[in-house]
Structure formats: structure tokens, C-alpha cells
Amino acid sequence: MADYSTEELEKIADKFRSDTSGIRGTKDFTSPEELYDELKKEIKKYHPSDDTSLVDKAYRVAYDAHKGQARKSGEPYIIHPLCVAIILAELELDKETIAAGLLHDVLEDTIMTMDEMRAEFGDDVAHLVDGVTKLKHLHLTDSTKDPKDKNADRLEMQAENLRKMFLAMAKDIRVILIKLADRLHNMRTLKYQSKEAQQRIARETQDIYCPIAQRLGISKIKIELEDLCMKYLYPDAYYDLVEKVALRKTERDTYIQGLVNDVKKYVSDAGIKAEIYGRAKHFFSIYKKMVNQDKTIDQIYDLFAIRILVDTIPDCYAVLGIIHEKYKPIPGRFKDYIAMPKQNMYQSLHTTLIGPSGQPFEIQIRTYEMHRTAEYGIAAHWKYKEANNGNATTTTVTEEEKLSWLRQILEWQQDMSDNKEFMTLLKSDLNLFSDNVFAFTPSGDVKNLPKGSTPIDFAYSIHSAVGNKMVGAKVNGKLVPIDYVIKNGDQIEIITSQNSKGPSRDWLKVVKSTQAKNKINQWFRSELKEENIQHGKDLIAAYAKAKGINFAEINKPEYQEKIRRKYGFHDWNSCLATVGHGGLKESQIVNRMYDEYKKDHVVPVTDADVLGSIAEKQQAAAGIQPEHKSKSGIVVHGLYDVAVHFSKCCNPVPGDEIVGFVTRGRGISIHRTDCVNIINLSKIEKDRLIEAEWQDTALMDNGAEYQADLKIFCHDRPGLLVDITKIFTEKEINISGIQSKTSKQGIATIEVFFNIKGRDQIKVLVEKLRQIESVIDVERTTG
To answer: Average pLDDT, stretch 498-523?
Structure first.
């Protein structure tokens, strides 16, 4: 970053975010009073005549309640709720929501009670604050502080807490609007947190809050949250992108303004009243496109768009005709979201054209009402409204349509006893990067489905009864197989029969929509429950037998209850049925029950188990050092050549601090002291730990090699694997295996397994690997 300092890039990024999201970052105010004046000005912008006494009282109460409290930045705590309230005011929300934003931390952090708040501000505000307070207790990602929680346990906690979040949203959607504003301000001030907290909070925001803002259609908040997440999760890529965008700003602005002026003239000459302006894409949008398409910023042509706002839908299509007459459209780049809205009710016409200099550019055409919905989403329905009898919040048919997604989530919660299944469907539905296809019924109704959907998905989008009785399908008048992949514009006729026995389990392998998967699983759960229960019993019994476990010994009510609570089942039969229809693996049930059984049947560690304390003490007292080499290279409590093996979970090598664990029948298992499996041992299991150390190097076999592995986190790109393996070749280190996976965000995780003689070689490898272009970090696995 030779041209700009980090501070200058921060200012450029803040200005850029303000221009793209429309929500302004809060200035550095000298006092809460000055900030509160800004809040009142913001409210007056969209409702100058309204009585703000409720907001005034909320500010005074919040100010007194938080007096003496400070944030990590050192500023008075009241600054935070004030900034949250300003964000809500910029969304033009009602006074009850703004008052609740001012008070959202009062129940949690002060002595004020729920009853006192209800008496002071009424049920509406009190319930909003209570809802936000309860959401604060939810750990939505792996932020749990309990080191014993494994990944599966954290997934369960995440699923259960998301259930609670959506229940809170169902009671009053404004709860999540306040929470989004709260998270936005916390992300703006994240620099005051520790590095670890920054990563955790940014990851949680990217995984949960950004998709929810997108799903609720609140682009104003989603845009800024995405950019701030990128800043903390991928800082190098973020600042590099900010600098490159800044360096081209003058040239880009000149080009955009020239296009805007031309388009204004064409539309005005046609007698259509319109507001026309240029709009830049936000950083994360550009970054996502660069990663997904494997392009540099110079190869991304649609870094900006021209937006045209008109009064009516006919005007939208009239303007589209004018634009296509003046500029050459790029085939396949036109999208009509007016006729076929997105699932979050976004509506607009998008078309990409060739500009006068040959550079492509995008134009978005929509009505003012569509624009308001695109910017504010569901929040648009809680705008300040003045009725004849005072201020009131009204419910409309459009609002009900927009809440249909939330109602679907709640239906899933009621239908599913398995948290894991709920989590899978929810994450699929929140997926920001999924594309949709549009198909038609014979009567002309449009169905919006995920890309890759089949006629089965289409059938269930009509009604579960249609899907359950489906026996075939016609596409554009021709019979097709049921795994046919639907294309945009297909007309689909579903063939049903009352003699159908219902869906096939194989359908679950081909359907794409969460709705279809849910309905198929629901059918199997309800129609074949007894069969599923028996099938689950058989699978569990067979697995236990194959593993040599006496299932009769572990199949006790107390262990069943622990399984039921862990996976959120209503009863034991629900658990068996879920295993029976494939929603849960039998291995998960048996292994968990066996682990619980072993905890209750621990065999005390004897002197013999720890290799003979008498011999140990005698050798220690005499300072005896054997002259022969240990075959394993490990000394356990002063004794040599005991039966030891190296744990595969952490792969210790000479130079690592190690510890032994006395196993049953397999001697001593050697682990690194930082292995999570050792750290997470129960109190009873820790009694089985025994001191271990590497033998003196003079007595060790210099030709011995030890297995090790490294995890490399990087931005995926062509030639990356070649660059990585080249380092190992240069250091004459043999690679025994490589595993890799790439996330939808383009972040690759590459795990390399290799053989070395000691820890010093690992240090050299890590230093070299971190110097490779695109590598974010390198670390050893710890279990």
C-alpha cells in the first residue's frame, strides 16, 4: 500500500460504504447530547410533526441507567445505544423501535426490571427490549467458552439458539431489526476488541447476520456488514481492494457521470420523469466476484451501475426499451425481477450493456416503491406512520407476503425434532450465493426455485399433496425423467396418481429446495413412523454388534435421556425414527451412549497401570540413565521401551512438549501437551496421564522419521498447490498425503501430511509457506 496509509484507506472505505449503503457512520461526537441532537434531526427528516416524547424519555432513562459505564473504546456506554437508535432512525422506523434501541441494554446491564420498564414505557417497548436481551444470550457460532464442546456439540447449540432467534422474530420482527442495528454498530467499533474476538464476531456476523439482513431485504445494513466482515476476516485482501478502487476513483467517476448525463437526456427526451444516478458496487461484492470468477479487479467490468427510479411499472419497461435502443445489450445479462421477484421480494430490471468506449456497464430500473423495499426490506413496514388517532403501525398484505419466509422457518421448527436437520435446511435457505430459476405451471403461475431444481421440487412448491402423489412430469409438453434439471422459462405439468404409494427415499438425493426435502422427510416421519422406529432399532443393534459393544448394557434410560437432550428429540422413539429414515447416523447414537457408559464404569488406575511406581522411584533416586536406545525414542517415567504409540490426532515430533496417556490394552499413547483431546479430558481421565519426554538426542535413532501435518489457509487460485509442494521438494521432505477443500467464499483449506525428523523442520516449513502468495495462515493441528 505505497500510495495510501492505513488511516487514509480507512477514511476512503468509510466514505465508500456511506455512498453504497446509504447509512452514514457516526461521527466522533464530543458528547452524548450532541449525538442525541443528531438522532432527533434524523427523526424529524421523515416525520417532522411527530411527538418524540417517548424517545426523549427513553434517552433520559438510558442515560441515567448507563451512567458511569464505559465501552472498551473508553467512551461513555450511552454512545452505543444512541448509535443503535440513529441506525434505526435512518431506517425510518417507528418511535417504539427507536425507544427500544435506546433501552436495549438496560435490562441486561443495569438494575432496572422488566416490570419497571413495562410501567414506564408500555408493553410494546418492554417486549422489544426483552426480546433483544434474550437474543444476547445466544452463541450463534463456535463462540462457546466451554473447551469440552466438540464441533458437533457447537452445531447443536447453534441450531437450538437459531430456533430461539426465529421464535423471537416471529413474536415481533422489530426485535431482529434492533439486533441488526446493534450488531452493525458493534462491527463499526470492532477495532477495540482483541484479535481473537474480532475474528469470532466477524465470522458470526458473516454466517448469520449478513444472510438474515439479505433475507429480510435490508440491503442498507447487509452491505456495510459484509464489508466490515471482509475487513477483519481478510484484511490483506480488503485493504488491497480499497486501494485499487481508490486509485481509479477519478477516472471511474468521470466515466459514470458521462453515462449518467447521456441516459438522463435519452429518458428526458422521451418525456419520462426519472431520477438517475451512478452507484458503485461495495467491496465485498467486488471481492466475491473476483474470487468466484478467478479474476483481478481490472477484469471485473461491472464495478458500478446506473440506477433509474421512475413512478410506475409501465415507465420501467418504457425506459428499458429506450436504453436498449441506445446501447447494445449483452445477451444473457437481462433479468426481470419485476415479473419474477426474488424471495425477499426485491424487484427491479437489470440489464448489462456495452458503453460508448466499449466498456460494459449495468443499469437497474425500478419504481420508487420498489427502491424503498430494496433498501429497507421488511423494515419498510415499520416506518413512522401517522393515523387519524395518532401514530400507529399498520399491517399490509405485502408485509404478510414478505413474512412468508419467516413462517416457513417456524413450520420447519415444528416439523423437525432433529436440530442437525433444521440447521442444514436453514443454512441452505440463508445461502447468499444461490441462484434461482423460474418455471411456469400450465396456468401461467410462476414458481421460484433454487438452481438445479427438478420436477419434484416444482411439485412440492405447489403443495405437499401434489409432491406426495407425483408419478411423473412433462416439461414443455414432453415427458421427462423426475431428475430433469429445470431451466428458466420451462412450463411444467406434474402427473399425479391416487394410487401412488408416496415419495421415494431416492428423491432426497436429487431435490434441491429445502421445502421439498422437508416435505419428503416429513412424509416418511409421519406415514412410516413405526417402520422407521424398527429400522432404527435394527441399524443401532447391527452397528453395536459390529463394534463388539454389548448394546443391552448401554441401552439404559439414563443414557437414552442424554441422547434425547443432546439432539433435541421429544422422546426415544423420535430418536429411533430419525435414525430409521436416515436423519441421524446410528454410529452417533451408539458411540455417544457408549461414551456415557464408560464414564460411569471407569476402572481405577493401579500402580501396574502406570508402569510400576517402585521401579520408577528407585531409578529416579539413583539417577540411573540407561545406556541403550529406546526403540520409540520416548522415556515414560524413567522407564524405557514400554509399549508406546504416537497419537494420530496431534502427531507429536521430537522437540514438542509431550505427555503420555495410559490406554486400556494398547500401552501408552503419546500426545502433544497442547492437543485438544488431552486438554478436554474429564477429571477422572486426567488421572491416566503420565509424564513423558523425548530421549536424549545422542541416544535416539537419527534415521527415524515421524508423521506430521500442517493446515494451510489461503485464497484459492490456479497453481497454488504447485507452489506449496515445491517448498516440500526444496526441503527434501516427503509428502505422504494431501487433502483440500474450498469454501463458497473462495477460501481453501489444504492439509498436508509428511514425514520429518523433528520440530525444527516444521518451523522452517511454516515460515516458507507463509511467504507464498495467497496464503493467509499456516498451523499444526491440535487434535
So the answer is: 86
| pLDDT tens sequence across 395-411 | 333 444 445 555 555 55
Question: Higher model confidence: residue 752 or residue 600?
Answer: 752
Could you tell me the residue ranges of all domains in the chain? 6-140+153-237, 248-386, 402-502, 522-600, 631-699, 706-780
Sign of CA dihedral 471, 477, 479, 483: negative
Return the closest-CA partner of residue 528 out of 560, 497, 503.
503
Could you tell me which residue, 168 or 81, shows the higher pLDDT?
81
Are β-strands 775-780 and 706-715 bridged in parallel, bridged antiparallel, or unpaired? antiparallel
231-234 contacts: CB < 8 A, separation 24 or more? Answer: 231/13, 231/202, 232/190, 232/198, 232/199, 232/201, 232/202, 233/199, 233/202, 233/203, 233/206, 234/287, 234/715, 234/776
Q: Average pLDDT of 214-226?
A: 86
pLDDT in tens, 372-391: 888 877 666 555 443 333 34
Q: Which residue has the cell 427510479?
A: 309
Choosing from 33, 108, 294, 767, the catalytic residue is 108
Query: Tell me, what's the pLDDT at 188?
Result: 93
Minimum mean pLDDT range among 236-245, 422-431, 457-466, 486-495: 422-431
Give residue 27's pLDDT. Answer: 52
Residue found by looking up cell 500401552 in the block: 667
The strand ranges marked E within 262-379 are 275-280, 304-310, 328-329, 335-336, 349-354, 360-367
595 catalytic per annotation: no
Grid-cell match 442498507, residue found: 220
CA dihedral over 465, 468, 474, 476, signed as positive or negative: positive
Question: Which of 92-106, 706-720, 746-760 has maximum average pLDDT?
Answer: 92-106
Beta strands in 205-296 (DSSP E): 275-280
Of 10, 14, 56, 109, which is the active-site residue? 109
Interval 230-246 mean pLDDT: 88
Over residues 754-774, the pLDDT tens digits come to 889 888 899 899 889 988 888
At 398 the pLDDT is 46
Instruction: Give the CA radius of gyration of the chain.
Output: 31
The gap from C-alpha 644 to its chain's centroid, in whole angstroms, comes to 42
Name the DSSP class of 264. Answer: H
- What distance in Å separates the CA atoms of residue 267 and residue 265, rounded to the nearest whole number? 6
- State how far Cα 729 lies from the chain centre: 37
Q: 90: buried, middle or exposed (CB in 10 Å: 19+, 13-18, 0-12)? A: buried
Number of H helices, E strands in the chain: 33, 23
CATH value of 6-140+153-237 in 1.25.40.850, 3.30.420.40, 1.10.3210.10, 1.20.1270.50: 1.10.3210.10
CATH of domain 402-502: 3.10.20.30
Annotated catalytic residue 400 = no
Give the pLDDT of residue 721: 85
Q: Does domain 706-780 sit in CATH 3.30.70.260?
A: yes
Please report the sign of the dihedral spanned by the C-alpha atoms of residue 455, residue 456, residue 459, residue 461. negative
Mean pLDDT over residues 6-17, rounded? 67
Alpha helices in 270-312 (DSSP H): 283-293
Order of strands, edge to edge, in the sheet holding 658-662?
639-640, 634-636, 689-694, 658-662, 668-672, 644-646
Please state the separation of Cα 188 from the chain's center in Å: 19
DSSP codes, 130-148: HHHHHHTT---SS----TT
Tell me, which fold does domain 248-386 have in CATH? Beta Polymerase; domain 2 (3.30.460)
pLDDT digits (tens, 9 = 90+) for 474-509: 998 899 999 999 987 788 999 998 888 889 888 988
HEC letters along 453-499: CCHHHHHHHHCHHHHHCEEEEEECCEEECCCCCCCCCCEEEEEECCC
Nearest to 645 by CA among 707, 710, 591: 707
Closest CA to 448 of 343, 545, 376, 604: 343
